[in-house]
Specification:
2 copies of one chain form a homodimer. By secondary structure, chain A is of the alpha/beta class. Chain A folds into 2 domains: 150 residues, Aspartate Aminotransferase, domain 1 (Alpha-Beta Complex); 239 residues, Type I PLP-dependent aspartate aminotransferase-like (Major domain) (Aspartate Aminotransferase, domain 2, 3-Layer(aba) Sandwich). Chain A is globular and about 60 Å long. At the A-B interface, α1, α3, α5, α6 and α9 of A face α1, α3, α5, α6 and α9 of B.
Chain lengths: 397, 397
């Protein structure tokens, strides 16, 4: 009895699969700086914890499949504070941004359909594509030009009769790139010309720096029936473990269909919806210091890394990641070696090999993703340890 | 731009779609006895609430994709208290039993594969089948013989080359039937003979009455590589809103594959896993009074309904549901009418039309599902109101 082909083929998380080596380093007494995953160290805001403590019911019961109305309204209000008008019925609460992506894939495409995604991309899109049996067609970008989008003509070349949607993730995990209005407009016109949906993963919306601002695909009235935003509180409010996200769209047929998928799994977690409500009610002022902190960390990392001989690094405008090219051949080998064979005064660093963020075979083998999710002091120390490790690695291999 | 075929085809929850009529009845000041859904009124146990209040971290961070080890071990220990030996690595924590079903479908079958399920069945299996693009092949049972399984020969007739698994849900939602060891053995031998997986939804394991006990598919060593148990804390600990379930199996290939699907969605909710841990640590003694309470309710409902002229009702052995046949033609019409046109002293009752629990067209139109999730006093009153409503309905139609 064999398991399914999709069960065999689904990619193991390239980020998580090296975790055992980190665990074993820690067991040997080595301190590991984890800048491999997007787990921020920013404290979850107090109103969120207050909502947890105030939860007071006798029975922990099911909520509505689409999520509590108050939360859906609070999310609509949040969009309104960016001058984006959305009805609470256009918001379906999901179990993390993860489920929102899965629902979006399922509702735009049947099995065998194609979704174009600029690569490198958030590696878990692969998992949802496997779940939904859709094929990701990568649009390859490169570190040299800061992972900017190519011309309309170049993108159009990979559109096929099976293409159902383009997915944009801006600010981007893993590149940090924030697409300009002009870049977005290219995609909008392609969606119109080729009759495609546009899925936008905007979970890092507030993580934009140097005074830049994020433009949502919901700001383009000409694609109001084509635009589907995937959202999440995980990064926005440092609530990764809450598993609260949303599908946001003005296309009623899509929100109705997403609701039917949502009904099958009954409801998102009840308590965390109350916590999320408290988070959204803080208003967008909350992000001002958070944004400042991340911008500073980004600069610290850039200054620390830019002079490494052979590095290719561009300073990104958003999220909290860098993809950098290193003068190495196999970043997975390097990352593992840092955990198994190297330490500097009993400290080492874990970054993420970039290969898992590409779907084109062989791409990203000499690149790593670094997440600036540590406070300045730790980040500076991590940079020192990282550079020492890289230097020793280059001498050995 | 059309949405996907699966997005159009996915069934709207037949239980939830009548909710607006109930809301509107309540707005008119009518008290509705909800015995349509499996939302128990049993208090969530105090240790679970204590775990919530004791949660004290600065950052609500991601947990491991497979769930916290302590919880996986606690679930393994729980099985051990039923003399079922399971390794913690054979337990993957999921977002409710819902996600466990979805993962199980995905891992046993590719799109187009078939899964045999005795009908009437838990209606949300349809949603997960749509998500996973597998086809449910119903094995039709009937109320007259208490929804017992037919002979091996009868079941074998619906097995095809595309059949990948049989799904058993015992104690059953919606029928309350608990399969005997002999019935289980029929399925075990079919799984062996036809090379099939066996998915067992055992979330109502403790809800068995009259001194009966539940036998798990994990108790059959000959199918240890074929058996996948879907589990959940929702009913067991009255924690429906927590969204914590599990896939439990001895087949390492399956648990490894499920883990890869789990990695894509990062992790189950962090706080609820701590709550679930507290629940499992109570031990199975917890269920003794709960079981007694439900057995009593079942008897109250049976006594209250059995003399309705034209009713077909068999007393089930488990879960907290009845499927009964009524002398009506269209139970959906009846259920809606009870909410829109009827009240007795400003009270009415909502039950679930049974049609949504069948996948064979036309089946179950004269049946309803009744959930005995209310305390005796309320249940008795609900029966009086229900009978008065049915009588008036039969006079009118």
């Amino acid at each position: 009895m064999d398991i399914s082909k999709r069960g065999l083929d689904i990619q193991e998380s390239p980020i998580r699969k090296l975790k055992p080596f980190a665990d074993s380093a820690r067991e040997r007494g080595i301190h590991v700086y984890f800048i491999n995953i997007g787990q921020p160290d920013i404290a979850t805001p107090q109103p969120v914890w207050d909502a947890l403590k105030q939860f007071d019911e006798e029975v922990l019961s099911y909520g509505p499949a689409q999520g509590f109305l108050e939360l859906r309204q609070a999310i609509a209000d949040y969009f309104d504070s960016y001058d984006i008008e959305i009805n609470a019925d256009g918001v379906v609460i999901t179990v993390g941004g993860s489920e929102a992506i899965h629902f979006a894939f399922s509702v735009v495409s049947d099995p065998g359909g194609e979704i174009i995604i600029p690569e490198p991309f958030y590696t878990n899109y692969n998992g949802f594509a496997a779940c939904a049996n859709v094929n990701i067609v990568p649009l390859t970008l490169s570190v040299e030009d800061g992972f900017r989008l190519p011309s309309i003509e170049t993108i159009a070349k990979i559109i096929s009769p099976r293409t159902r949607a383009i997915l944009l993730n801006s600010p981007s995990n893993p590149t940090g790139t924030v697409y300009t209005a002009e870049e977005l407009e290219r995609i909008v016109s392609l969606a119109l010309e080729h009759d495609l949906f546009l899925i936008a993963d905007e979970v890092y919306k507030e993580f934009v720096y140097d005074g830049a601002s994020h433009k949502s695909v919901l700001e383009y009235p000409e694609i109001k029936d084509r635009a589907i935003v995937v959202d999440s509180i995980s990064k926005r409010f440092s609530c990764c473990g809450a598993r609260i996200g949303a599908v946001v769209t003005r296309n009623e047929e899509i929100s109705q269909s997403v609701l039917k998928f949502a009904q099958a799994r009954l409801c998102p977690p009840t308590i965390e919806q109350k916590m999320a409500l408290a988070a959204y009610r803080m208003g967008i002022e909350y992000f001002v210091p958070v944004q400042k902190e991340y911008q500073h960390r980004r600069d610290v990392l850039f200054e620390g890394l830019k002079d490494i001989p052979g590095i290719v690094i561009r300073k990104p405008q958003g999220a909290f990641y860098y993809i950098v090219r290193l003068p190495i051949e196999d970043s997975e080998h390097f990352v593992r070696w840092m955990l198994t064979d190297f330490h500097l005064d009993n400290e080492t660093v874990m970054v993420a090999p970039a290969q898992g963020f590409y779907s084109t075979p062989g791409k990203g083998k000499d690149e790593v993703r670094i997440a600036y999710v540590l406070k300045e002091e730790d980040l500076k120390r991590a940079i020192i340890v990282f550079k020492a490790g890289l230097q020793e690695y280059l001498q050995q291999f």
